[in-house]
Amino acid sequence: QTSMKNMERELVCPVCKEMYKQPLALPCTHNVCHVCASEVLLQHGHLYCDPTSEPTSPAATPSTRSPRLGRRAVPKPDRLDRLLKSGFGTYPGRKRGAVHPQTVSFPCPACQRDVDLGERGLGSLFRNLTLERVVERYRQTINISAAIMCQFCKPPQLEATKGCTECKSSFCNECFKLYHPWGTQKAQHEPTPPTLTFRPKGLMCPEHKEEVTHYCKTCQRLVCQLCRVRRTHTSHKITPVLSAYQALREKLTKSLAYILSSQDTVQTQIAELEETVKHTEV
């Protein structure tokens, strides 16, 4: 158990503190998630050229490339020069206001050193496919070894086959039927794979199939981590989902309070109009 925990620590990204997703190998030999790396560069004033692209790798062929990520769209040099002369925007390899090409410096969160990525930025990095496969195999091993038992069976407990997010419990087949009787509200509960950590089912991004985490005020739509680093959202106002929810809820609450406060006045005016109509008909 201890060795497995030690191994799990080696498979965790130093930025997001979760298991690696599409890890990139940095020149200092440390690794970082693809999305995390692009976010770090954005925070340091570098506009990621095209987050839908993947790093160059001899193994990153169309068959191994993630289906949700497309090919790199390299901007034309003359267009970049025009943008830089006009003082508009940045791109990997250039800081805001820079006139000459600069190399991208990436602050490695593992060794606390500034790593030189060259002018191409993340485009010069290789995707660590070996580490990616190790993470996937580790996930499968954990799922197989950690059997989840039914929480409602009388001893001896049977292994759980279904989970319920609404009930926040795991069931065997018989217990699931027993606690979700036909014709009741619970019968509408959707079964999920059994788990010990139930969390509410979040909304998913229709484009990237990732859970949405932020809200773009400019587009007035929910966005996931991959949407955030797209060029289309570069100058947009993006806030966390919770902040946007609280702000919109407060606005709706005020609007609703105003409507309810003026309800009596409106009803009185309607009654007066109806009386006028009757008088006119007579």
UniProtKB/TrEMBL annotation:
GO terms for molecular function: zinc ion binding. Residues 200-241 form the B box-type domain. Residues 13-49 form the RING-type domain. Pfam families: zf-B_box, zf-C3HC4. The keyword Translocase does not apply. It is found in: Cytoplasm, Cytoskeleton. Residues 52-73 are annotated as: Disordered. This is TRI46 protein. It comes from Sinosuthora webbiana. The gene is Trim46_0.
